[in-house]
Amino acid sequence: MKITGTFLDEISHDIPSSNWGRKEWAKDFDEMKAIGIDTVILIRAGYKNKLTFDSESLKKYIQPYPVYIDLVDLFLEQAERCGMNFYFGLYDSGEYWHKGDYKKELEINKELAKEVAEKYGERKAFKGWYASHELSVHDEDQLSLVGELCEELKSIKNIPILISPYVKGRMQFEDPITLEEHEAQWDQIFSALSGKVDIVAFQDGQVDFFELEDFSRVNKKLADQHGIESWANVESFERGMPINFLPIDWRNLKMKMDVAQKVGVSKLITFEFSHFMSPNSIYPSAHFLLDRYREFTKL
């Protein structure tokens, strides 16, 4: 399997800005197309006070930093030029849903979704929603947020909805979840999201490599049982280094891709091409990661 989708990191929340404009983004979309990427996913419309476009609905709730370029329009334009599907990621307040006020987070995102549908909904590339609030364990408030938001999205524009949750694993947490606990909790989560979420792409970087296949098999089995399509979010950055976040060692990426193929997911996406795999990346090692990827995938 090859990587055929990538997130678009738009506002540099926890990785550095590339300081690209239209010319640089167009060049990078060309590179994505050249290796077979057909799907791009805006990871979020905004985070805290940083926005991808000048949203009137969000300005009712926050005082945003100035928006100098409409990145949503830019990404849609490039996706249309390159024949790609675009998934729109929602807004993360970085506040309300983390402290249990999921209703406020939901209120904000419902208004945003309506604005987005009116502004961009008829664009040719607009083929999906991305519910950007990442789930991990069974939390009733967070689950209600995602479930109710997905219902709203379906009512506004009935197109596929993607989520990309993560495992509470030992690569990120001091008290990692067991495989048995994870299976039990995600059976409950998928039961609540069945019929609301269409696609799940679990992140693969939070568990130790030697646990990855077991967790991936459980994720695929549960998604199948609840009628949800399985992709894999094969992260192209390294979690196991003292410095966060740098392009991944090619060997680690290849191992994770092999696991995803082995368990039978239907598509590989990554977070994310432009920083960690692109020949235009600010990281020189990303250029070589793409070289190794192309060698082994015969691209």
Automatic annotation (TrEMBL):
User: Record's superkingdom?
Assistant: Bacteria
Where's the DUF4434 domain? Answer: 3-283
Name assigned to this protein = DUF4434 domain-containing protein
